[in-house]
Structures are given as structure tokens and as C-alpha cells.
Amino acid sequence: MFPQPLAQSIQTAGVIAVLVIDDPADAAPAAAALSAGGINAIELTLRTPSALESLAAIKKHAPQMLIGAGTVLTPAQLMQARDAGADFAVAPGCNARVLAAAAEAGVPFAPGIATPSDIEVALEFGCRLLKFFPAEPSGGLAYLKNMSAPYAHLGLRYIPLGGINNDTAGAWLADPLIAALGGSWIAPRNLIQARDWAAIKQRAAEVATIIRATRKIEN
């Protein structure tokens, strides 16, 4: 479902910062802080009433950012995210109705998987980029390697999210199964609410350094 240029952009980004934004006025400054720290991909979760407005604000004020909609649970949300300017969408689970809607509308969509059965549902809809959630509580990288082994010949790639931090990010990023990490620890909700853009920039810079070191990316 992901066009090759978009999939490559996610691979190059290395980390997708996961955001929960309560006030749309915080959307552009949060994106600017992440970008200043070297992170240029965002998953904005649809968990607040202001999420779609915030997504549109980032698209307007930070056009250089790759922005996806997260926690997409219904076909209606998928269409709303697309109309707000989302480049792609992701979900914590594997909802066949949302998968079908994404396929029909041509919206790049990464469903959430945690079992082989989830992977096979995703494959039915042509998905090759999958969100592994919750990553660490489910068994971490070792579990993902074992679970995904029967599908290795299909070239599937994964975006793990959940329980990852600076201490473990490098090991995930070094594995060829991983397209990018879901980074929920980079700009947590409390820092956005406090408008601590300096702290978010610093966290982004720390992660960007890990990406460069792990994937041998030049400054």
C-alpha cells in the first residue's frame, strides 16, 4: 500500500515521532522543535478532539515534515485524515474494514500486528509495511524475528512502537526488518502540554544521533 518513494522516505527518517496534541496551537511549534532536532517524520494520533486540526496545521506550517495519522480505527477517520493532509495512516490493530477502505481510497496504511494471524490479515490487503505494537511488551526484537520468519521471503518491513527508548533504539534500527521506529518517548504529551520545545528539540537531537550512528548516515 505504500508507494516506494514514501516507503523510502520513512526508511530514511528512521524514527517517526508519535504525538498526542490537545491544543492545535501547539502543533506547529511541536513540529518545529522536532525538525530542529533532526526528526522529520510524525505520527499524530487521533486521540483528541483537536487531532485533525492539529494535523492540518502541521501540514501547513511544516510542509517538510512527513506526517501520518495514528490510531485510525474507522473508515471515516481514515478519510478525515486523508482530507486533513496525512501522507499515510497507521493503526494499533488490524481492522479489516479500515484495511479495505484504505485499499479502495489508495491511502498508504500500516496496520498494527502482534501475531502471525495479524500479518496474514494484512497480507490479504496487500500490506508490506506493518506496525508492530506493542513492541517491547510483546517480546521485543527477538519475538518479532521469530514471528516474522515464515514471511521473510515476502520482504515485509516493520515499524515497532511501544516501550522503546534511547537505550534500545539502536538495536532495533540496526535490524534489517525495521523500516523505522515509532518514537512515543521523543515528544510525550506532558512536554507538549508544558510547551517545553527546548526539551523536545533535545530529545529529537539525541534520537537523530542514534539514527546516524546506527545507519551510518552522514550529517
Task: Give an overview in words.
With 219 residues, the protein is of the alpha/beta class. The chain has a single domain, classed as TIM Barrel (Alpha-Beta Barrel). The chain is 47% helix and 15% strand. The protein has 10 helices and 9 strands. It has helices at residues 4-13, 27-37, 51-61, 75-84, 96-105, 116-124, 140-148, 166-174, 189-193, 197-215, and strands spanning 15-19, 41-45, 66-70, 88-90, 109-110, 112-113, 129-132, 157-160, 181-183. α2 (27-37) runs parallel beside α10 (197-215) and α8 (166-174) runs parallel beside α10 (197-215).
Mean pLDDT: 96
Q: Strand order across the biggest sheet?
A: 5-4-3-2-1-9
Taken from the alpha-carbon principal axes, the silhouette is globular
Number of strands: 9
What is the architecture at the second tier of CATH? Alpha-Beta Barrel
Count of folded domains: 1
Q: Report the sheet with the most strands, covering strand number, pairing sense and barrel closure.
A: 6 strands, parallel
Distance between the termini: 31 Å
Structural class: alpha/beta
Task: Give the CATH H-level superfamily.
Answer: Aldolase class I
Question: How many DSSP helices?
Answer: 10
Q: At the first level of CATH, what is the class?
A: Alpha Beta
The SSE order reads: HEHEHEHEHEEHEHEHEHH
- The percentage of residues in β strands lies in 15-25%
Low-pLDDT residue spans: none
Name a few traits of the molecule.
219 residues, alpha/beta, TIM Barrel, 6-stranded parallel beta sheet, 3-stranded parallel beta sheet, 15% strand, globular
